[in-house]
Amino acid sequence: MNIVPELDLGPAEHLAIKHLRNAAFPEHQSDRSYYKQLPHYRALEFQGTKLIGYMGLDYRVMNLNGEPIKVLGIIDLCVDTDFQGKGVASTMLTRVTEYAQEKDVDFIILVADDPSLYLKNGFQCFEAETTWLRVHEHKNYGVAEERLNDLYVKPLRGQIVTNGALDWLGYMY
Predict the structure, then answer these.
(1) Most Cβ neighbours (<10 Å): which of 10, 82, 142, 167?
(2) Which residue range forms the structural domain that includes residue 164?
(3) In which domain of life is the source organism classified (predicted)?
């Protein structure tokens, strides 16, 4: 798996990401390689020259219970249908975890409708009163406040957190 800075991606990678992302998320089609915002990095898994796995990675500071935390966010993890159920996503999550453990990251965080993959890969449910910038189609709609129960975190520095107040200090993935 390659972790590539956004600025280093070329048109071919953007096109491959767009097709894989749109196939995985038909309810969130986009004519670009991202949905809400460009991520800082892209994690790309290839079989030969074919992109078979993808996730966006967003590095930022968030506010958890009044304290700043450094977070690596996972956005739009998806695997080509021909390769699903073969451990590709779990391998990608393991590699991203190893990458983040070597960096200045407190938590890996993501939002998921189906948590089964993430729970078996060491993530834990995190219920939070959250605030974030509501963004859609390159327009912000102000700050949203809502209790969320579909957040999943993986602490990397021994922290234990199951609930609290989380300010995304930006858009929600």
Answers:
(1) 167
(2) 2-171
(3) Bacteria
